[in-house]
Amino acid sequence: MSQAATQAIIARFPKAVVSSHDWRGDDTVVLHREQLVEVARFLKHDDAMRFDLPIDVCGVDYLGWREPRFEVVYHLMSLKKRARIRLKVQLHEADLHVPTLTHVWKGVDWFEREAFDMYGIIFDGHPDLRRILTYPEFEGHALRKDYPQRGYQPLMPMPTLSSDLE
Amino acid sequence: MATHVSRPTHGHDGHGHGHDAEWAKRPSPGKGNLHPQAPADDHMHAEYYTINMGPSHPATHGTVRFELTLDGETVVEIDPHIGYLHRGFEKMSEVCTYGQVLPYTDRLNYVSPLCNNVGWSMTIEKALGIDTPDRCKYIRMIACELSRISDHLTSISAGALELGGFTPFLYGIQAREIVWDRIEELTGARLTTSYTRVGGLNHDIPAGWEEAIENSRKEIQHLVDDVDKLLTRNRIFYDRMAGVGAISQADAIDLGFTGPCLRSTGVDYDVRTYAPYLLYDRVEFDVPVGTSGDNYDRYLVRLEEMRQSWRIIAQCFAQMEPGPISVGDWSVVLPPKDAVYNSIEGMIAHFKLIMEGVRVPSGEVYGYIEGGNGEVGYYVVSDGSGRPWRVKVRPPCFAIMQGLRLMTRGALLADIIPTFDTINMIGGEIDR
Amino acid sequence: MPTLKIDGREVTVERGTTILEAARQVGVDIPTFCYHPGLTKPANCRMCLVDTNKAPKPTPACYAECMDDMEVSTQSPEIVKTRKAVLEFILLNHPVDCPICDQAGECVLQDHYFKYSASPSRLAHKKVHKPKVKRLGPDVVLDAERCILCTRCIRFCDEVAGETQLEIVNRGEHSEITTFPGKELDNPYAGNTVDICPVGALTSVDFRFRTRVWMLQSADSVCPECSRGCKTRTDTFENVPRRTKPLHNPRVNDWWICDEGRLAYKDYQEVARMEGPAAQVEGKRRIVTNVEAIEAAAAELGAVANRQKIGVVVTPWFTNEDAWLVAQLLKGPLAGARIFMGGRASGTADAILRQADKNPNRRGVEAVFGAFGLQAQPLAQFDGAGLEAVLVFGDNHAIGEAQMAKLEAVPKRVVVSAFQTPFWKMATTFLPARTHFEKVGTFTNFDGIVQRMDQATKAASSCKSDGYYAMKLGEAMGDTAHFGRPEDVFEQLRATVPGFAGMTWAALLPHGMKLGETVEVTAAPAAPEPVASPAAAPTEV
Fold first, then answer.
1. What is the mean pLDDT of residues B174-197?
2. pTM for this one?
3. Disulfide engineering: C189 pairs with which of B221, C110, C148, C161, CB 3.0-4.6 Å?
4. Which residues contact B37 (CB under 8 A, 6 or more apart)?
């Protein structure tokens, strides 16, 4: 059912869709943040959709490539229709809020926590938005493009620069 | 096709529960809320207390810590803390070429590294829009199935060990050693295989390997049958597994379960049949499913899947024909060494592939295969250069570990151990 | 104004535009070897062949002019095949040298082969061998086997450097580049032939086998060796500059740079770097902390109540921002001090790039000082009589021994400099400075073009720019203005110095702005900063 879910979303929520594509066969719909929950509920509960299996949620940082800087990417699957779809929500750096989908699929819980941990994206309404892979004292968000490849954390011993002071 | 795994007729109800309502009522974030007060009218309750299990507990292999709130011996709340093995796979991938990422994928699910290798290569091939030769696909399938066998053997034997069954553990590990010997012959390494390449394989199967596999199959089948006999109808094992850590089908789907854990609840979702990749549509095999989604079903499903894997391997060898194992395009796969050392064309192609990597067109793909534990997915964003812009791994046990709360709440402390075993969390994969 | 279609994209261009230029306008990539926008077009490499409806055979895009109703195809099967054939032909006798070739990693031949061919060799015979290490001139070595005979170097010498020194001899596969008998490739711009060589045939003696190019980190710079201020790229490895490459700036240097400027980075590695602040402690000069040294300097200068008894030696090596901060010191706390303009002595000039004034920013410093009514005498007129303290910025002043003796005769001597020079020796208080490689700032060239440069190497934390010390000295003497970044100083500069008003920090990239020029505020009011390195933290002055 290539493109069927995309077409259904466009038909049902014409204002919700920013853009869509199916590069290499991956159906992708970019949504406005405001309609995300609505579309998610539709995708899960509508009989023609039944995207019941939450596969993945992750953030992407496009710093220095394109605006808006952040994206939250959802991968969903329908066991009944054997179909997959990718939803994306674009976020500006100044406003990193996106509604949680934990009340639609319980399984996005940890995935959203990870996106929060790695990118600082706030999932509004998430029941338990804590860091998951790093620790509470971690400063910054490790997968952001402006976090250095070799970053140092307050709880890590700092290398000393012998040339700092004569 | 899906077949139900058969359970012995004796048995009794366990204490695992899973309800939507309970999920909704779980404590909200913050440490303070993890200590709910005992009901005032219940005089039998002692005060709840909190203990740490792990991160270096013998049963928390893979390094994980459970923050447990206990009412006596009953688990009131469990909060798994992961991330102890977090080594920045996704961050590192952003500065590596697509080829350099491959060795890192070995270390994701380190019990079935070949599945990760195959998944990664297939994802990049999907982004490139290329197709590999049939022989490459058959070898990849054999590699995947061997990996799956070693994955399931690990899960089953370690589970038996932690319930006190040392003999089945030794049998299982002996079988796994044989699998790894064959994998070593194929790839040169037991765990850090790095066998596939974008666009093909590193090398063809060694001479006489098919025979070695056939001999190993008999040996391993024998050992697995022994494990089966020792465990499946063993009263102690059965009592510790059956009805414990059960999860409903609806919950499992809603939590994003995949692999044996989902199939144990009766859903026949297997990437190999739902979206046949490689040449899985040319081989016959059954997808074993359970009924109750408890530990025992997960054990049975894994046991049966190993047998199905051998079926697949046998068919692959039967169908496989001699031929190339890689696409011939030098802008994707490394030229043969003879061409590299003796012609400038091969030299340049080698240099560019090693130094700058294969150029993947700008775009995003999600590639997925059936790993040992469920759906292993790679979401890759490419900016058109030789290095990925973003790599996201979808580790199957990440989603399944979320369910540990539902599966063990209300159970006994000791039930966490078999449940955690059959979930088969792999530290390298969940923490990345 | 012919209108044509390139790969289906319609474009209207000026009469006389080549297909290649038109294609680049619409973003269609046509591979080239011999074409260089700054040179004439011989169309001899055949890499840019395209199909048109105006000719039965493939046409060289770099040479053919656009015509009305032309339909150009750069991706037709014919052309794809043609390119493969051209590459196969070029690579036929190419040695298997990538592992030992300095060009590997930035080689156009590698790029084009990998992108447009990636096919195996079909050569059944032995390759033709030619001279491998042939010294063409003081800084250029030829490897004739690697040469693809694009003739860029020959054309550069003829057309830009104005000295005919190179030629092709022999015929067919035995053709090779060489110098005319009795001549050397020794013109003052010879190094550019290495830059424009698309392969590793011409390599620089200076850079040969020093660093693999993929290990280099690059930063945009401005060459400070004369008042031309060529736009350059400084390539560093392990925080040490390894080479200088010219960048394209049509307002200043086109694509070129002189060899003096190219090799000047080495001069800074030959002198001992002084990174320790020093001050008088119990009558002896000792290494102290930065803060203590600044306090000591402020005390020495502040003790001279009659500011006219203070001499300040400024230098045309200040960035505009440094100059502005120094000007604040000179019109504020040190108002009345006598100002002397130092700098290097004049040198060779020619009609191509080189200017006689061997200092990068004389025009900028004069503009800034002029705006505040500060008059500077030449350092040559320095007469120490009556001075009680002297504050010297910089250490490359052309100064005679007599003059130096007069400086040393001044009782209190505060020196801001980077290297071990006589100025460092004479200092009573020494403040370690940064070199231009370590600064972020702007230079104004002789023509009034203001260009930005980025930090190429990191300085030790004790080393600060001249402007920073001026600001800190001002602070210690009662001035309260404080700036964090060169951008902030530049904002003040725009507001106070005539000529800079119309500029913005962002608009100075990529080609700089001329004094008095105003940035055109079009659709995008604030031109977004191009994100070069996302990890770069704001640089301190």
1. 91
2. 0.82
3. C161
4. B48
